[in-house]
Design a protein that fits this description.
The structure holds 2 protein chains of 2 kinds.
Chain A lengths: L5 H38 L3 H15 L3 H14 L6 H26 L3 H9 L4 H31 L11 H12 L2 H33 L1
Helix pairs in contact in A: 1-2, 1-4, 1-6, 1-7, 1-8, 2-4, 3-4, 4-6, 5-6, 6-8, 7-8
Chain B lengths: L1 E12 L2 E12 L3 E6 L5 H8 L7 E6 L2 E2 L4 H7 L3 E4 L11 H11 L5 H14 L15 H13 L5 E5 L7 H16 L3 E5 L3 H6 L3 E6 L2 E7 H6 L4 H10 L1
Parallel strand pairs in B: 3-8, 3-9, 6-7, 7-8
Antiparallel strand pairs in B: 1-2, 1-4, 4-5, 9-10
Classes of the chains: A mainly alpha, B alpha/beta.
The structure holds adenosine-5'-diphosphate and magnesium ion.
InterPro entries (chain B): AAA+_ATPase (IPR003593), ABC_ATPase_HisP-typ (IPR030679), ABC_transporter-like_ATP-bd (IPR003439), ABC_transporter-like_CS (IPR017871), MetN_ABC_transporter-like (IPR050086), P-loop_NTPase (IPR027417)
Main location (chain B): membrane
Keywords (chain B): Amino-acid transport, ATP-binding, Cell membrane, Membrane, Nucleotide-binding, Transport
């Protein structure tokens, strides 16, 4: 049996962590883009479109991320779409992230007083002008903190990609555990690395919350 | 010539009949005070005049153009009807100057320099020439309301609708705002104000409209109406406010 030093374990974990970071980044960026699109759709107030966004949000918020990942991975290949573990992870994390962000942002937009819309309207601003010059500048300030806060959920969500065989931090931990039989040590390292990723994000979110809370 | 004209206007919120056949004729340069108990439909009336609420029967016209709540109509209407709200509704993320310049630049397509000149002039007019770069939150309620007036004036409206614009203010700040309104009245601005300031309605206003249960219950010359009300309801109302 090969001997693993602490450094060997850490080195392998750090290598796998790159994939966790990359997966998180891609999922967050594409999730944000989809959420932006869905938010725009929701803001048109078209009843059919609004209904669609609502169902979308309920669907992906109301089912476990793990099931979504299974469905993307096994489900898609069963109906004839070959998809890699990497592709399935990105797809399901994007759906998951966007569903939550749409809902978070809805809150940020809807908490703005109705008077802001009315004042804009009586000044002659169109719907889009109101959105661009009055609503979004205020809503984005409010949305910053909870959005960054949610990114922690995305990072932790990537761990589930391990069950469809994608080698990221968690999967690497499981593999190293099988090789070393030192579960406590290995998973303590894994946890520590997740913490190192997530803690700065929550700190940042808290900072933003304070900053923009005072500014309002 | 009448600037604002309402002809048998009926308005419902669902099954609730709020305005029950309102007739009103407001001439250019007139100062009309709308008084009445809370819930009598005063705000709804103002909001119908500028298209914020739709009405179900009758007709409203401003400057001989019919008012509907179609988005595009409201926007055209905004060019002749200004409105000021009880709680100011300034844009908190913009400075005082930017608040005033926003609509002239993006709606009237004025150049930035031109909008700035207008904004400064309007701020002078409401006595806040030194607040151009301040954020609304740094101002007192009375100052914020005067900025809101300046913001409405920058669009050069023909009539200004004011919905209880001094009701949210500390008593000592009310005077400054009323002074601005009085000045506007003197300059010939058409004002329609929902107000509880009876002294102002009597001394500055030309006409008082008393609303009761969704109807114009009594109306007439402000001095006469307030000193010598005809209906029992108006007598009671005046008795309760004074
Ligand atoms: N958006 C609304 N939906 C339903 N009822 C409303 C709405 N706005 C006002 N009302 C009702 O219409 C009536 C008149 O309201 P309003 O015009 O605000 O009265 P006022 O300004 O004279 O106090 C009140 O009974 C009020 O509860
Ligand atoms: Mg009211």
């Amino acid at each position: 049996m090969i001997e693993f030093s602490n450094w060997d374990i850490l080195r392998n974990l750090l290598f796998a962590m790159q994939w966790t970071i990359l997966l998180s980044l891609i999922a967050f960026i594409s999730g944000t883009s989809v959420a932006l699109g869905l938010t725009a759709v929701r803001l048109t107030r078209n009843p059919v479109m609004t209904r669609f966004v609502k169902v979308y949000v309920e669907l992906f918020q109301g089912t476990p991320l793990l099931m979504q990942m299974f469905l993307c991975f096994f489900g898609l290949s069963m109906i004839g779409y070959e998809i890699s573990a990497w592709g399935a992870a990105i797809l399901s994390l994007t759906l998951f992230t966007s569903a939550f962000l749409v809902e978070i942002w809805r809150g940020c937009i809807d908490t703005l007083p109705k008077g802001q819309w009315e004042a804009s309207r009586v000044l002659g601003l169109s719907f889009l002008q109101t959105l661009r010059h009055v609503i979004l500048p205020q809503a984005t300030r409010v949305a910053f903190a909870p959005t960054v806060g949610f990114s922690v959920q995305v990072v932790k969500g990537t761990a589930l990609a391990s069950v469809i065989g994608f080698v990221e931090l968690t999967k690497a931990g499981t593999m190293l555990n099988n090789a070393t039989f030192e579960p406590f040590k290995v998973f303590a390292f894994v946890a520590l690395l997740y913490f190192a990723l997530c803690y700065p994000l929550s700190l940042c979110s808290k900072y933003l919350e304070k900053k923009y809370h005072v500014a309002r | 010539m009448s600037l604002v004209k309402l002809d048998q206007v009926h308005k419902y919120y669902g099954d609730f009949h709020v305005l029950k056949g309102i007739d009103l004729d407001i001439k250019a340069g007139e100062v009309v005070s709308i008084i009445g108990k809370s819930g009598s439909g005063k705000s709804t009336l103002l909001r119908c005049i500028n298209g914020l609420e739709e009405y179900q029967q009758g007709g409203i016209s401003v400057d001989d153009k019919e008012v509907t709540s179609e988005d595009i109509q409201v926007r055209r209407l905004a060019l002749s009807v200004g409105m000021i709200f009880q709680n100011f509704n300034l844009f908190p993320h913009l400075t005082v100057g930017e608040n005033i310049m926003l609509a002239p630049t993006i709606v009237l397509k004025k150049s930035k320099a031109e909008a700035q000149t207008i904004a400064k002039a309007m701020l002078e007019k409401v006595g806040l020439g030194d607040k151009f770069g301040s954020y609304p939150e740094k101002l007192s309620g009375g100052q914020q309301q005067r900025v809101a007036i300046a913001r409405a004036l920058a669009m050069n409206p023909k009539v200004l609708l004011c919905d209880e614009i001094t009701s949210a203010l500390d008593p000592e700040l009310v005077g400054d705002v009323l002074k601005v309104l009085e000045q506007l009245a003197k300059e010939g601005m058409t004002l329609v104000l929902v107000t509880h300031e009876m002294n102002f309605a009597r001394d500055v206003g030309d006409r008082v409209v008393f609303m009761h249960q969704g109807k114009v219950w009594e109306e007439g010359n402000s001095k006469k109406l307030l000193s010598d009300p005809e209906t029992e309801e108006l007598k009671q109302f005046i008795g309760a406010v004074l």
